[in-house]
Amino acid sequence: MRIFVLLSRIPYPLEKGDKLRAFHQIKVLSEKHEIILCALNPLRKADKQKAFAQLQPYCRSINFIDLPAGGRVVNILRAFFSYLPLQSGYFYSRHAAGKIKALIEEYHPDHLFAQLSRTARYLMDIPIKKTLDYQDAFSYGLKRRADKARWPMKLIFRMEHKRMEAFEKEIFDRFDNKIIISEQDRNLIPHAERQMITVIRNGVDMKFFHPFSRKKRQEIVFTGNMNYPPNIDAALFLAKEIMPLVWKKKPETHLLLAGASPHTKVKNLKNRRIKISGWLDDIREAYACSEVFIAPMRMGTGLQNKLLEAMAMKMPCITTPLANAALKAREKEEILMGSNAQELADALLFLLENSTEREKLAKKAFTFVKQNYRWKEATAPLEKLMQNVSLLNQVH
């Protein structure tokens, strides 16, 4: 089967969740199928040559389409006056649409795959069987951001939430298959037949993320793209509300905030006890040298890849019920949880003060991801969905 994959970003480097998901799904699907990859490049910052080298073993054709910066404002305005989500306008251009159509006519794919609702407009009217990966419930994520934002951003996020909600509902009926990352997110998609969406979980590359020995520092670590609003919120919550409670009892404990593109708000947290690493060539070092991993998420949707990576590195992990809803680790067996700053600080202190409990939790977490979150097994249901609908198309 020849699969045309359309992405809103070049899927390398793997510092964002959508890139990570796309890269590994392409890698698995390429074992039995031809991949025609088309990735938009809205900011034109990607190292195309490096990305091409990483993707080339898995794709018959690789196509990167720069989105013209000059037309971005016009496209956003068009979306605004068409009652479409503004991010749909940000990622859409007529120039890109023409190139995508030409690629499809050239390669005659058996199946189209669109990752994220922001790419749906390019493929939804093309008469070829197709799959949409909602990935997360974007509209609900925007609602959460609106609830926390201040005026005037609150008004903008509320507007975008309503538009995205309507758009998610509209595109549902324009694709043969719909997939999403978790049951939690599926239940938030605004469509009466949302249960028809297939849950395709993420995985973790356990050949790369695996336990290895490093001298441990008395350090807590949180990783992720530090320019992503839910991660910014979590970093601020951790540094300003959780850690002060920990420092009352263990003032020598340090905090490492590790990840790409730290926002100014994150950079400003730096002090003698808080380290801001920025991009790391090997994020595993951040996991391996710290004693405890924490993901105090209060916003966002979907499955937190950072938790899978830390567990695969055999780290004891702490998170919130919001983040664990998709992960489904057993509380006090494979993970510790807290709903507020005091509960999360108590969990941190418990692990920092009990090396036996840290080791026990880490071992069970490692077994949990090994049994439930491998990319090959996670992607198998997606392959089956595509094959089934393509076979039906051939019969008819």
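^ that was protein a. below is b, sequence first then the tokens
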Amino acid sequence: MGMLKEFKDFAMRGNVVDMAVGVVIGGAFGAIVNELVGKVISPIIGFLQGGADFKDKVYTLPVPELAEGVAAPSIGYGAVLQAILNFVIVAFVLFMVIKGMNSMKKKEVAAPAAPPEDITLLREIRDALAKR
């Protein structure tokens, strides 16, 4: 039973639960961003490039002789650019979310700093003179 209790303590620790929630929300957020990029941003970029779909952009390698029915190898740079665009959008949105969360946190009011030693000494002298 010791191992089960130890696992329960580990799993219910605040950081692990927070991380699990973050992973689930991140997965859902990733799906939203993929749809946004795939259905909204990529078609706009493709339209601006002459009507071609952004993710279907490829560079076909010039190969001298191929057997009949064999397609020339190609590099799918459009899919890579779309993945980079997805990453940039996710990173920017997460930056904005974290920035917003940090600004919403209650700012702790720092305790006033102790007065310098010479000011404290002068106050003591003033109070001693006032008692006379």
